[in-house]
Amino acid sequence: MDFPRGLAAYPITPCDASGRVDAAALRRLVGRLRAAQVDAVGLLGSTGTYLYLSRAERRRAIEAALEEGTGGAPLLVGIGALRTDEAVKLTQDAKAAGADFGLLAMASYTPLTEAEVFEHYVTVAREGGLPLCVYDNPAATHFAFTPELLARLAQEPGIVAAKSPAASAADQLAGLRPRLKAGFSLGYSGDWATTEAMISGAEIWHSVLGGILPLACGRITAAVRRGDFAEARRLDAELAAIWALFCELGSLRAVFAMADLLGIASAAPPRPILPLAGEALARVKAALEALPEDLRG
Asked: How far is CA 115 from CA 88, 110, 202, in A?
C-alpha cells in the first residue's frame, strides 16, 4: 500500500482517570472521520497521548478504531516507546490488529546521538513488520532530525515517510526531496502553518484539528488538490482564532476541550496535563461557535 496523500486526521484517545480507553467515545471520533472521508486516520499520535497509555490500552484503542471502521482510509498508529524492544512489540501489536503504517517518534529521556536514532528506526522497521513514518517532533522529544539523517533513513527498507514540523517544509521540499527514494512521503504537522506546506507540494497534512473537525480541514485539503490556492488560504484564515488558541494553549488541551464541548467525549487529558477551564475554555467555545454549524457536526 502506498502512503496516503491528503488529510491524515489525528483524534484524541478518550480515557478515564486510570488510563482505560473509552472505546465507545473513540469509536464516535473515528466515525466522524469516516463520515468526512479523511484520507488517513492517525491513531495514538501525540494528540492521542500514546506515551501515557499502557501496551494493553494501546491495543484496545486500535481494536476500537477498527471495529468502528475507517471507510477504507489507511490507519497510522503511533508506536513510540523509550526502549527499542518495546517499540518493536508495539509495532507488532499494531500490525496484528490491522494497522497499515507505524508512526514512530523518537521518545527518549537520555539525549541520543544520530547513530542511536538510526539504529532504533532500522531495528523497528526490520522487526516490527509495518512500514514506518518517521515522526520528527522536536518540541516534544527534544531530538531534531537533520536532513542528512532523514535522507539516510529514507533509503532503508520499510521506512516510507516522514512527518515533520511545518516550519521545515520549505527547506525539505526544495532540498531534501531530490535525495529521497521514489515514493517517500514528506508530510507536515503544525496545523496553523500546514496550508502553505501543502501549497508548496507536501503530500499529506498530519492534522490535530482534523481529528475533531475533519470537515473544516477537508475543505482546505480539497482546495489545494484542485489548485485553488487562494481559496485554501481563505479557508485557512477562517480558522485563525483556533490556530491562535492552539499556539497559546497547546493543541492537545484545546481539542480535548472541543471534544467535550461538542458532546463527543467528556474525557480530560491525562495528568499531569490539566483540562482547560475558565477564560481559556470560554475562548475555545467562542472559536467553535464562530464556525459555520455544518463544520462543527
From this structure: 18, 14, 27
